[in-house]
Amino acid sequence: MSKLGQEPLFLAACHGRPVPRPPLWLMRQAGRYMPEYHEVRAKAGSFLKLCHTPELAAEVTLQPIRRFHFDASIVFSDILVPAEAMGLEVQFLAGEGPKVMNPVRTERDVDALEVPDPREASPAVFETIKILRRELPEDVPLIGFVAAPWTLFAYLVEGGGSRNYEHAKTLAFKEPEVAAKLLNTIVEYSVAHATAMIESGAQAFQLFDTWAELLSPEDYRRFALPYANEVLIRLREAIGDDVPRIYFCKGTGLYLDALREVEAEVLSIDWRLDLERARAAFPDKVLQGNLDPLVLYAGPEETRRRARALLAKTGGQRHVVNLGHGILPQTPHDSVDALCEEVRGFTCPT
Q1: Rounded Cα–Cα distance for residues 274 and 313 (Å)
Q2: What mean pLDDT comes out for the span 142-153?
Q3: Rg for the chain (alpha carbons), in Å?
């Protein structure tokens, strides 16, 4: 609750309660599109050092809240931080993105993975959360996150980003028992890491399934959905119903039938699924999304037009305004300002 005893707008919307207007935050809102981020990143010396330095990670988390006054904050970290905790070497190479230097490709590799206490393996994450809970406005909840098991699986096996993810998909299709063993290991650490984030102060939680779109609907049901649900169900068992769970699935429109079974209060959808169709498909879910991130490159007027169209489709209730994926590095600030103004100026019909 805020100082006035009111539930923060973002949490109320995630629980499906009536709100005067929809809340707004953006995936990757702390990051490369902000000049002040680059200043802190340079001070840290590397991306991973930034993630592992609580004071600096907290600072970049706070930057977009100060600048744009979003309705929620997401802790600055990376979905590969758990990979480090599990005993793998992770590097972020200039121009190449994240790399797992010792990828997991055999059953022996899976058996060598560790499932440590997250607070001991990644203490900076939890210290960052504690700093943020002291520094954030009381009406701006803090979101914790991890990668969904399939998405982390794809990175761990492939060794980094890839066009086709040949290693990851080949392991899944050729050695499904080994794939299941790795996915279950990821589940165990993900549940522990997510629970520790919430116990440290995170007030909502998002599971990112960025690489779900690699899979056919049949394979999504086999390799992605059950493991994502295992994390979500066990998280609810550990922390109760007060902390809303958000599931982001890139490629949402591919899996409409399966996604009705997702054990999350909020379904975050990408820009390729029409919101009205999503509302019809998931009447019991709060929806999050789903502007195309590149709309903001078109400038403030087009951003305003698209935002108005988005809000008209939902009426603002049971909707968290966001992008359909992360905000991009060259996004103009005046487009973000325009989006904020349109959402804040919207009043939900009574």
Answers
A1: 9
A2: 98
A3: 19
Query: Is 17 noted as a catalytic residue in this protein?
Result: no
Q: Which residues contact 298 (CB under 8 A, 6 or more apart)?
A: 335
Q: Which of 155, 189, 220, 227 is catalytic?
A: 155
In angstroms, the CA 347 to CA 159 distance is: 46
5, two tokens: 């005893």
Q: Can 78 be counted among the known catalytic residues?
A: yes
Each residue's pLDDT tens digit, 257-293:
999 999 999 999 999 999 999 999 999 999 999 999 9
Q: Can you tell me which residue has the tokens 């490629």?
A: 251
Q: Which of 71, 78, 209, 270 is catalytic?
A: 78
Structure tokens at 194: 């997510």
Give the chain's length: 350
**Integer Cα distance of 39 and 154 in angstroms:** 32
Smallest Cα–Cα separation from 209: which of 41, 325, 94? 325
Residue ranges of domains in the chain, CATH in brackets: 9-344 (3.20.20.210)
Per DSSP, helices labelled H in the chain are 9-14, 35-44, 47-51, 54-68, 81-85, 107-112, 118-121, 123-135, 149-158, 166-174, 176-200, 217-219, 225-239, 256-259, 275-281, 300-314, 333-344
For the segment 33-67, what is each residue's pLDDT rounded down to a tens digit? 999 999 999 999 999 999 999 999 999 999 999 99
Active site includes 105? no
Spatial contact of 318 and 286, defined as CB atoms under 8 Å apart: yes
- Rounded Cα–Cα distance for residues 97 and 47 (Å): 10
Does the annotation mark 344 as catalytic? no
The verdict on pTM exceeding 0.85 is yes
CA angle 185-188-193, nearest 5°? 125
Q: Please tell me the distance from the alpha carbon of residue 117 to that of residue 119, in angstroms, as a whole number.
A: 5
5: confidence class by pLDDT, cuts 50, 70, 90 = low
- Catalytically annotated residue among 41, 119, 272, 304: 41
